[in-house]
Amino acid sequence: MVDGPHAFEQPLNERTRGFLRLEYLFERLTYHRADTSSWGRRATLDVLLDVLSVMAYFDVNGEVSKALGQRYAQIDDLRFRNQADPDTANELLAQIDDLGRRIQRVPANFAGYLLRDDELLYNLNNRRPIAGGSCGFDIPGYQNWLALPHERIEADLDAWCTHLAVFESAIGLLLKLLRDGTQPSTETAENAMFIYNTPPETQMIRVLINDANIFPQISAGRHRATIRFMTRTGQAGRVRPLETNLDFQLACCSQ
């Protein structure tokens, strides 16, 4: 058993998928930046390239700005109709407004330009499809960069990450509001299978389970979700469908 429910999330649209992917990468980036060893620096650059690659092909400026605008309008409407605590609503509106203004100052497609114009990042990104492609004889300039003084490396990382903090804050807030906006309901999966008609405008499905030996496989579209619960057996960790009824918590999150 785990301490408290473990949440498995399934996005139902491209925006939410992109936000969840970036949230995951931002958490990894924060973790690895704390490691100032050579291997920690390598891990940091690997994750940074993932972040920039996602941002280069996902219109993060546009999607985050639209989502913030929609949330602002929704919260403002709830405040106007006296359906939200005024102090909480005003605080959220001010936070959203600040994030929106800061994002407007970020150059469009900055991530793509950074991957193209920075020589070290460009070379590293091109070698990524090759297993072990960033070793010393492949990119001697990378080996040299890793040997630079701590202050110089930190300055480079700060420069490359200049525009990331505002997106990390905005996406974190948007996903928190999405998750907190729906109270999970208790459901029963008969023979470990659950089929559910998703409400309109659902953006993400969350399945919460208390048993660490069980996980869901979620297949979801705009109108229906199928959840099959699986478990692992034997030393080889083979996965098989659970064969008993299972109570779990389900949240269909929408704006």
Strand percent estimate: 15-25%
User: Spans of 5+ residues with little confidence (pLDDT < 50)?
Assistant: none
How many strand segments? Answer: 8
Mean pLDDT, to the nearest integer, reads: 92
Q: Spell the H/E element sequence.
A: EHHHHHHHHHEEEEEEE
Number of helices: 9
Largest sheet: 4 strands, antiparallel
Shape: flat
Oligomer: single chain
Q: What Rg, in angstroms, do the CA atoms define?
A: 22 Å
The SS-based structural class is: alpha+beta
Q: What is the percent of helical residues?
A: 40-55%
The N- and C-terminal alpha carbons lie at a distance of: 32 Å
List the defining traits of the structure above.
255 residues, alpha+beta, four-stranded antiparallel sheet, 9 helices
Give a structural overview.
This protein is α+β, with helices and mostly antiparallel strands and 255 residues long. It has 9 helices and 8 strands. The model has no long low-confidence stretch (mean pLDDT 92).
Topology at a glance:
Elements: E1 6-11, H1 14-33, H2 38-57, H3 60-80, H4 86-104, H5 110-117, H6 119-127, H7 140-146, H8 150-160, H9 164-180, E2 185-189, E3 193-197, E4 202-209, E5 214-220, E6 224-233, E7 238-241, E8 246-254
Antiparallel strand pairs: 1-4, 2-8, 3-6, 4-8, 5-6, 6-7
Helix pairs in contact: 1-2, 1-9, 2-5, 3-4, 3-9, 4-9, 5-6
